[in-house]
Amino acid sequence: MSSFVFTSEKGVALHVGRQGDGMPLLGLHGGYSTRGEIEAILDLVLPETPAFERWTPDLPGMGDSVGSSVDSTTDVVDALCAFVDAELPDGRLVLVGHSLGGYLARAVAARMPGRVAALAVFNHVPAQEVAEPATVVASDPNALASLDPAQRGEFEGYFVWHTPEMVERFRAGVAPSLGRYDGEVVGRIMETSGAPVGTAADDVPTLVVLGRRDSLLGYRAQLAEAASWSRSTVVVVEDAGHALPHEKPELVRALLGDLFARAGLVP
């Protein structure tokens, strides 16, 4: 993987990772996270075909972009669209986002629907959150013993599968991002997330995957929003929470395969 810094005309700097060859895919991570998590998710869920050139920016105020400040999600979307125009000026691309990244991915798609071949959003931020009660699907009493108290709290608030396999995925794909953010900047972004982005992306082939046990953002509001997205497949996974792409990668991979086929990206 290589990385570089892109700076928009408005002075917003994004540290961007790049790997692979093929159709451009822009992967967007969630709030209070870094590009390392969306990279781990993409490793888990992307089908073998088509091949992608994966671009994964650290969003402003997070990860290696922690020194970059914005006032709202509009500023973030402006920077992401400027990045696409400058670095990916030709052809179409795929957008994939988790949590805040899912909301931003749809916002980018609404700005440039003609450029977006397919859109996938997992547990995206809705206009009005309706969180579900915290539950645990499966628990191994020894699985969490290896986590320090701070990590254990983060894990328990995120995952509903408390198993050794999920602890390892948390260690590899989530834990390295913990604490790598500017709380004031991310707070401003989160306060303005969920605002309507218009209907321009409604006709983009879309996959929406939600966790019925999502105690952070819920699923009911997102389900209602997606009802009017005319080319969307919407799936609510009964035994998954906000960490759905980490917990159910095989299912997500199959759903992405269907999305890419619907979008004409694979035979």
Describe the secondary structure blueprint for this structure.
Blueprint: E1 2-7, E2 13-19, E3 23-28, H1 35-45, E4 52-58, H2 73-87, E5 93-98, H3 100-111, E6 116-122, E7 138-139, H4 149-158, E8 161-162, H5 164-173, H6 183-191, E9 206-211, H7 220-226, E10 232-237, H8 244-247, H9 249-262
Parallel strand pairs: 3-4, 3-5, 5-6, 6-9, 7-8, 9-10
Antiparallel strand pairs: 1-2, 2-4
Helix pairs in contact: 2-3
Write out key terms for the chains shown.
single chain; 267 residues; alpha/beta; two-stranded parallel ribbon; 10 strands; globular
Q: Mind explaining what this structure looks like?
A:
The protein has helices spanning 35-45, 73-87, 100-111, 149-158, 164-173, 183-191, 220-226, 244-247, 249-262; strands at residues 2-7, 13-19, 23-28, 52-58, 93-98, 116-122, 138-139, 161-162, 206-211, 232-237. With 267 residues, the chain is α/β, with parallel strands linked by helices. It has an 8-stranded mixed β-sheet, sandwiched between helices. A two-stranded parallel sheet has the order 7-8. Helix 2 packs across helix 3 (100-111). The longest helix is centred in the first third of the chain and has 15 residues, at 73-87. The protein starts with a strand and ends in a 5-residue tail after the last helix.
